[in-house]
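Moderator note: this is an archived Q&A kept for reference. The question asked for a predicted structure of one protein chain; the sequence and the answer are reproduced below.
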Amino acid sequence: MSLRQLPLRPSSLAAPFLALGCFAAILGSAITAGAAEWVEQRFDPPAGSRWILRTNETTEEERGGKMQTTVIATTAELTFEEKTSDGFRVSYVVRKTSYDGDARAGALVAPLSKALENFVIHATTAANGMPLRIDNLAELQAAARAAIDRSTAALGDKPEADTLRQLAANMLVGDAKRAPKVYLGSLAKLALGQDTGLHPGETRSEVDEAPNPLSGIAIKSNTTLRIDTVDPETGNVRFIRTSAFDSEAIKDFLNKMVQQMIGENAPKLESLMKLFSMALDSRMELDVESGMTRAVHQEDIASASVLGQKIVRRSHKQLTVAPAP
């Protein structure tokens, strides 16, 4: 008897698939129930608690066929001095820094980093730990300017001395609004995973800024934040945050760049725009324990093409938080 002649009963064929369907439904219900039961733990470190923050950032930049690698490592101490009605007062001290990379950049970066080691930054944060302001900003800026002067003193009155001073000042002597991101960038990154208000299955989209690979000037970017995994026993959670340059912001930035090069010659402008491009692909994992971000792993790929010359910058960033001994 051939297979075509066998007396097949629809019910017997459907049974395995019905069983699989029931199993999938039960599994889906269990996952949904587990997710519904999860409640995000508050960010609430006790006053007086001390934490050690370790960061390691490796950047590989390919430009004109040449590869340059830079490694910056930092060890800092964070203390929650006091809890306020709407946040915290903290102190942040960089205890150790190291730089490995381009010798010319290192000649400026390394002394500046060392000069600011052990300087106590007093700051105020929001309830989720996001730094809002540096309370001793004037003192910090004075220390930064003194460090810049010492680092460039050997150059005397050479033209490059002014260039380096201006570059360092742009990096370190920010205004009150920018200073928390410059000096407390690690705290800002940790805060992204604290008191998010997110629920399983929800994705939050926001607008942020990211440095572009051509000038470092911040440019508009679109971000998403979602829950990746939840431990139902401990309540610990992993968030995934992604970022990409906003297409309209990139178009506007490149348009202005080309106009500065050739003026407002419309025919040439349109053709030259095809020879310029920029892109960002950023992915960040934030592991949160008991409401506090304890580890951040970030992978960034930023690229730019200018008149056929391509620049690709890959960054690998690791940030860990542990109780101070």
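Archived answer notes: The mean pLDDT is 82.
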